[in-house]
Amino acid sequence: MIKKNLLGLLGLLLLFVTGCNNSGKKVEAHQDSTQRVEMNNPEEIQQISEVITRFARAYLSEDNGKINALIHPEHGIAIIHRPGAADTYTIIDSIDFKNPMPHYYAYPVFVNNQVLTFESLPSYDCGTMKWDKIGFFCDTTATTVNRPLEAIAIFLEEFEDTKFDAAEKKEIAALEDGAYRVILAQENDHLIFHVKKFDKGWYVTILDRAYAGCDA
Fold first, then answer.
1. I need a surface site. Which of 103, 135, 149, 170 has the fewest CB within 10 A?
2. What global pTM score does this model have?
3. pLDDT tens across 9-40, in order?
């Protein structure tokens, strides 16, 4: 009887371990599903170049009309900001330069003389308080999608006891699935946003006002 119980216990343990391994594979598969092929279509390169340069120009000249024409009328734009130690985001349907999001952090105005280039993105070092390279970049060769909204949601669910329902997760996916990250990096200023192609054209879906902020 004891031997049978031990065999049964070992069998249950084997099923548990197998189940855990299968769950791990599902997570990896889900992560792999965010990969994409390199963009090499000249027409698409032209389209993404146009929306990136138009957004940067409208943002730096504080032109509400021109910038809001680049925001999807149904999905809006997510503004990532850092009210404390952790990042959060707010989805809005339009940008008003006189009423920034968040309200205490005015949209910066600076001159951009950099030409858009398609190569790996720069990173910011909060130790040196510098970018590792200066310029205007979009990496269309990247085969993985940068997903800051999903990362924020995961963090808030785990550490802030904030729950995101299926509709909210779908809203996040609509803004960042397949999007390309753009960084305009200067010595003392920067602009970071994401662009994504929908059925009827390219739109700006995320404005990241938290990255390269080292004050929290």
1. 103
2. 0.82
3. 334 333 333 333 333 322 222 233 355 667 87
- DSSP string computed for the chain: -HHHHHHHHHHHHHHHHHHHHHHHHHHHHHHHTT--PPP--HHHHHHHHHHHHHHHHHHHTT-HHHHHTTSBTTTBEEEEE-SSSS-EEEEES---TTS-SSTTSPPP-----PPEE-SPPP-EETTTTEESS-EEEE-TT--S---HHHHHHHHHHHHS-----HHHHHHHHHHHTT-EEEEEE-SS-EEEEEEEEETTEEEEEEEE-STT----
